[in-house]
Amino acid sequence: MELNREHFRAIIFHNFRRGLSRQECFDELNSLYSDKAPSYSTVKNWYNEFNRGRCSIQDESRAGRPKSVVVPEKINAVRELIKQDRHVTYREIEASLDINMTSINKILHEHLSVKKICSRWIPHNLTNAQKKARVDWCKEMLEKYIQGTSKAVYNIYTGDESWIYAYEPETKQQSTVWVFQDEAKPTKVVRGRSTSKQMIACFFGINGHVATVALEQRRTVNSEWYTTICLPEVIGEIRKKQKNRRIILHHDNASSHTSTQTKAFLTERKIELMGHPPESFKCTKILYKREYLLTITISKAASPSTTKS
Asked: Name one GO molecular function term (predicted).
């Protein structure tokens, strides 16, 4: 049996009642328990307490926080706080449970194994049918283009229209939440932003950027603009390098892309159209930095228009 502090205090109290001196009590404890015995100053202090009439060997309650609060009750309390509010902060936990920062950190990371992470932004919440359509399409493309090793991938060009904003968006720090080890990472639907902006269409192939077409002020993206201004410029850039290259176009299912006018334009120029699963990611937002696109747009807007001789 391993003796704790209260056990030794009881022995000291017994020796005190026996009439042993402080030194005699210390020597006896030291001979019986060696280095596990309390120090002489501890024996002396407890003799003084007993001389003042104290009979209890329990620790007296003290003002302020206890030395150690990492106990099951506090751990469970922190767990419940997190479940109630995934945005709860260290200071809120401290104020609610009267636990110091060091103990909070220990409970969160060593006992609950939680970490605070940002929600991953997603364009849409897909249905199961939409998810399946995306997976089926990806499998079809992998098979058709031989896991990406087919030379036909050099004929694929993709693009999309996107708003380019004149400011850096806010960080995602405000959306951070606590996540337990066995929980899935949270997601958050991307919210629209309102400030000065420029609509552009950016196209690229496997070798990089092909063309960026800026939408003129007070115009909307429609079939007329897409087939008379945007696509002709993109196709022209492709034909500059490979006049007779086969072109496979990949764009999303926006109305300007799926209209009868656009389909007729592509058929007339013998441009193949690659399928696109509903609500799939927009390529330009993923593969190109906003700053790069904005630089291209500004340069294009600032340069004087030229005409062929």
From this structure: nucleic acid binding
CA distance 289 to 254: 22
The sign of the CA dihedral 248, 249, 252, 257 is negative
Strand partners, 161: 201
Please report the sign of the dihedral spanned by the C-alpha atoms of residue 24, residue 27, residue 32, residue 36. positive
| 8-state DSSP, 154 | G
The token duo for 267 is 């058929």
pLDDT at 51 over 80: yes
**Residue carrying the six token digits 């005409």:** 307
pLDDT tens digits, one per residue of 72-83:
899 999 999 999
* C-alpha to C-alpha distance for 216 and 219, rounded to whole angstroms: 6
Tell me the C-alpha distance between 263 and 256, whole Å.
10
- Crossing angle of helices 40-51 and 22-33, in 10° steps, is 130
What would the two tokens of residue 258 be? 């799926």
Token pair of 202 as six digits: 């950016």
Confidence of residue 304 (pLDDT cuts 50, 70, 90): very low
User: Could you give the percent of the chain with pLDDT greater than 90?
Assistant: 28
Identify which of 57, 68, 52 has the alpha carbon closest to the alpha carbon of residue 12.
57
Q: Which helix (H) or strand (E) holds 197?
A: strand 197-205
Tokens encoding 221: 């993206």
Q: Has residue 152 got a pLDDT over 50?
A: yes
Task: Identify the three-state secondary structure at position 88.
Answer: coil
Residues 6+ apart with CB under 8 A from 201: 159, 160, 161, 162, 212, 213, 215, 221, 230, 234
